[in-house]
Amino acid sequence: MRIFLLTLILLTAGCSSSSAYPFKDTNRDGIVKIAFLGDSTTSGSCCNGGFVTYLQSYYPNIQMSNLGRGGITSTVVANRVRVGGFYPKFTNFDYVFITLGVNDWKKREPTVRNLTSLVNTLKKQNFALIIKVNIPLNMNLDIADAYNKKRRAGQDTWVRQVGKNILASNLPIGARFDRIPITADNFKNDGLHPLDGGYKLMAKVLADYLKGK
């Protein structure tokens, strides 16, 4: 009886420590693999691999690939995934999280249309792939220096509108990075790019999303 009770306690403890998100090994290769598509707010070149590095600590048994590229736009990503060769084959992944739009402001690119095309292309490559589109970070030019206030004038308004447009679309919505406060403690003086603390906040927001919070 005591052995039975001990076994039951151990099983219950194991269940309570697991993620509430129902991760699926969609391609049945024995490993859950997640890819993260995005720009510099994903790549985290300044800070040890960005939020993906910190998110990995929440889920050490899941294989995560950071495919973020600095300066890239939704148009470029959609085209390169469609043509192939630039990114790894998405048939090898079970999940893809996409965070794009902040760089689209320079040429006023159609972010939602590009994201819709990207999602459709990914689904054609791997029909079992689970795809989520994160709402990108907002900006705070109040913490920006004079150079960036001038250089990025109008980008903050653009980025906020991109978030609203994604939310109003039929895209599969993921984490809400737009809810993270952009402060001088955790973000650079361009009012956009995270420092180490900012990437930790992004990882926490995504981890909470995956846990169903």
Describe the structure.
The protein is of the alpha/beta class and 213 residues long. The chain has one domain: SGNH hydrolase (Rossmann fold, 3-Layer(aba) Sandwich). Helices cover 41% and strands 13% of the residues. It has 8 helices and 5 strands. Strands 2-1-3-4-5 form a 5-stranded parallel β-sheet, with helices on both faces. The chain is globular. The protein starts with a helix and ends with a helix. The N terminus is likely disordered.
Write the layout of secondary structure elements.
Blueprint: H1 2-16, E1 33-38, H2 40-43, H3 50-58, E2 63-68, H4 74-83, E3 95-99, H5 111-125, E4 130-135, H6 146-151, H7 155-167, E5 173-176, H8 196-210
Parallel strand pairs: 1-2, 1-3, 3-4, 4-5
